[in-house]
Amino acid sequence: MKTDKDLVGILIQDTNSEGLITQCQSAGSFLTTASKFAPGCLMTDSTTGVLYRNSGTTAAPVWGAIENSIVKSYVPTADGTGTGAITPGTQIATVTSANANHWVTLPAPVVGTLITLVSTNTTGYEIR
């Protein structure tokens, strides 16, 4: 992860080819700084685990919580079962890991299905 001097409290996880942030974390600070966040950017509030999406523009970000059944939280486990097993139908999986040697298990593949994994902390994990 990286940071930006203009975005205090934001950990940048991914950017697009234009350098705009597409995925990040915040400890409750939802900045609306122009020319930093891509439309559709996903921001995880690391204090609550709630996932937010920029429904605004690059010039004027607008953060709204994504609260529906397609967003689910997971905790990697030593064997990828239980809280580490991503269920079918999940489109956005927020993952909070305490051990880099634990993993999440993806559901059986379905053509056309896309799952976005969003890490809510800095501890890594495996995907199987």
Written account of the structure:
- By secondary structure, the chain is mainly beta.
- The radius of gyration is 15 Å and the shape is globular.
- The two termini are 22 Å apart.
- The relative contact order is 0.16.
Spatial strand sequence of the major β-sheet: 1-2-3-4-5
Secondary-structure element string: EEEEEEEEEE
Strand coverage percent: 25-35%
Derived structural class: mainly beta
| CA distance, first residue to last residue | 22 Å
Percent of residues in helices: under 10%
Coarse morphology: globular
Rounded average pLDDT = 89
How many beta-strand runs? 10
Low-confidence stretches: none
* Oligomerization: single chain
Largest sheet: 5 strands, mixed
Defining traits:
128 residues, mainly beta, 3-stranded parallel β-sheet
